[in-house]
Design goal:
Shape: elongated
Mean pLDDT: 90
Distance between the termini: 68 Å
Helix content: 25-40%
Low-confidence stretches: none
Largest sheet: 4 strands, antiparallel
Number of domains: 2
Length: 152
């Protein structure tokens, strides 16, 4: 009887990006988000596609892979992962906000009412926990400072 090795969890993309020789960074934010650029230094065309679902890119050989994966710590993921928003009333142009810059109410609403990519959903959960821990520490420090001020 042979023992099966446990399968390693496949890493998930949190950033699908390349850097071209002229320094341009191409980022594909979502599936079928094809982004291309003609490099100013060599005239070659570079492209990236697939968002967080798959990697498709040019193969010129001189681009720099700038992909990041879900094994990065939360402090990196909260800066890299973004959520597209049309503003609170839905009447603004689409902009992408890093999760770290989203209001807590917005994060909770996205988490409950939307179906984000699994890696984004995990980051939203971790961000809410991070904020709860931070708030707890800040409240404790504020209380201690007030007690010192009052002479307790």
């Amino acid at each position: 009887m042979t023992q099966q090795q446990p399968q390693q969890k496949q890493r998930q993309l949190i950033r699908n990006a390349i850097k071209t020789p002229d320094g341009t960074v191409l980022v594909s934010k979502h599936r079928h988000d094809y982004v291309n650029h003609v490099d100013a230094t060599n005239g070659k065309t570079y492209m990236v596609d697939g968002g967080l679902d798959y990697q498709r890119r040019s193969a010129n050989g001189d681009e720099i892979d700038m992909c990041l994966y879900d094994n990065e710590p939360h402090r990196v993921q909260r800066e890299v992962l973004t959520w597209g928003t049309y503003g609170p009333k839905g009447d603004q142009p689409l902009t992408y906000k890093p999760i770290k810059d989203m209001d807590t109410d917005h994060i909770e609403k996205v988490y409950k009412e939307c179906t984000p990519h699994s890696v984004i959903k995990n980051c939203l959960e971790n961000e809410l926990m991070h904020r709860q821990r931070t708030d707890t520490v800040l409240n404790k420090l504020t209380e201690e400072a007030q007690n010192l001020k009052l002479g307790y």
